[in-house]
């Protein structure tokens, strides 16, 4: 029986880690992966210099290679002194997940908005946002929280879990390492325009397949009429500095929560134009809670699906 139960261990391990991270989320500021953000900042400080578009893109690509070499050496050094088994892989998955810590902050932000404490809400949003929050209205705070929430679920939950099941713990970790440097060198930020484009392009190519498979199913868990039309209408005007995968997920959220998404944003007091998705919708101050519950339902569904496949794999004979 023990030998039989050992079939498909990555499915069972994923389910266990998902539950643990749901109950005991690891805030990014306490995560070992925080070191990757510091490394990315240090490299950019040395290399991200003025130049032509081509020079900055080449510089960004070479910097990405340097970043991964440094991270690979650190990870290899750690794995050299410990066994690479299912337990180690499970730890790598746990480190790679951070969605529920972001969701917890957004829940506090939602409560602050409900109590008309906009300054406190801005402080909460600044913990997870890469853009300026000082001048945001209550609608801007809501939109920012929604964008961060859905992005965090896709990049710090869905993708790491899928890669863990398919390829193992190192794949989850490698993706999160890429996700972190993409956010640190955000191409939408004028400071990293062109320099961050190679990193964004590589990450987008990895995100497309799973998002194409999962996004339509996700949209069914809350009525989201017209999300595909929103995507089609806006895809040609979406900034090249931001992934089209982001547009897919924000279109679903905009349709499902009946709210306007995206729009202009600020980086270091510089306004960056960006189209509005579902423009003209009335403010929906309950949208943060709606999205959180929507994601909780879908996360629970995927958890049950993982356990079902593990059960079938172990007891079908």
Automatic annotation (TrEMBL):
<feature type="transmembrane region" description="Helical">
    <location>
        <begin position="294"/>
        <end position="312"/>
    </location>
</feature>
<dbReference type="GO" id="GO:0048472">
    <property type="term" value="F:threonine-phosphate decarboxylase activity"/>
</dbReference>
<dbReference type="GO" id="GO:0009236">
    <property type="term" value="P:cobalamin biosynthetic process"/>
</dbReference>
<keyword id="KW-1003">Cell membrane</keyword>
<feature type="transmembrane region" description="Helical">
    <location>
        <begin position="6"/>
        <end position="24"/>
    </location>
</feature>
<keyword id="KW-0169">Cobalamin biosynthesis</keyword>
<comment type="pathway">
    <text>Cofactor biosynthesis; adenosylcobalamin biosynthesis.</text>
</comment>
<keyword id="KW-1133">Transmembrane helix</keyword>
<comment type="similarity">
    <text>Belongs to the CobD/CbiB family.</text>
</comment>
<dbReference type="GO" id="GO:0005886">
    <property type="term" value="C:plasma membrane"/>
</dbReference>
<protein>
    <recommendedName>
        <fullName>Cobalamin biosynthesis protein CobD</fullName>
    </recommendedName>
</protein>
<keyword id="KW-0812">Transmembrane</keyword>
<dbReference type="InterPro" id="IPR004485">
    <property type="entry name" value="Cobalamin_biosynth_CobD/CbiB"/>
</dbReference>
<feature type="transmembrane region" description="Helical">
    <location>
        <begin position="64"/>
        <end position="84"/>
    </location>
</feature>
<keyword id="KW-0472">Membrane</keyword>
<dbReference type="Pfam" id="PF03186">
    <property type="entry name" value="CobD_Cbib"/>
</dbReference>
<feature type="transmembrane region" description="Helical">
    <location>
        <begin position="157"/>
        <end position="178"/>
    </location>
</feature>
């Amino acid at each position: 029986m023990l030998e039989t139960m050992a079939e498909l261990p990555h499915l069972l391990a994923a389910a266990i880690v998902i539950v643990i991270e749901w109950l005991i989320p690891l805030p990014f500021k306490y995560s070992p992966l925080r070191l990757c953000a510091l490394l990315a900042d240090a490299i950019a400080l040395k290399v991200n210099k003025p130049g032509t578009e081509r020079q900055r893109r080449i510089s960004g690509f070479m910097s990405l290679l340097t970043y991964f070499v440094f991270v690979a050496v650190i990870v290899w050094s750690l794995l050299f002194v410990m066994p690479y088994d299912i337990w180690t892989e499970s730890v790598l998955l746990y480190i790679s997940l951070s969605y529920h810590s972001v969701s917890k902050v957004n829940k506090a932000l939602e409560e602050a908005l409900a109590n008309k404490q906009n300054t406190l809400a801005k402080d909460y949003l600044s913990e997870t946002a890469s853009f300026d929050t000082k001048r945001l209205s209550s609608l801007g705070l809501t939109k920012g929280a929604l964008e961060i929430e859905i992005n965090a679920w896709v990049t710090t939950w869905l993708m790491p879990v899928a890669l863990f099941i398919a390829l193992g713990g190192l794949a989850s970790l490698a993706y999160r390492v890429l996700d972190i440097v993409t956010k640190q060198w955000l191409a939408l930020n004028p400071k990293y325009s062109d320099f961050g484009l190679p990193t964004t392009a590589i990450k987008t190519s990895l995100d497309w397949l799973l998002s194409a498979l999962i996004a339509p199913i996700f949209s069914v868990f809350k009525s989201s009429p017209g999300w595909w039309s929103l995507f089609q209408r806006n895809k040609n005007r979406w900034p090249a500095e931001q992934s089209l995968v982001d547009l897919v997920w924000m279109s679903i959220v905009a349709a499902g929560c009946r709210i306007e998404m995206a729009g202009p944003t600020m980086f270091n007091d510089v306004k960056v134009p960006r189209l509005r998705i579902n423009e003209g919708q009335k403010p929906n101050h309950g949208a943060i809670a709606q999205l959180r519950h929507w994601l909780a339902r879908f996360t629970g569904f995927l958890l049950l699906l993982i356990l079902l496949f593990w059960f079938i794999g172990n007891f079908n004979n």
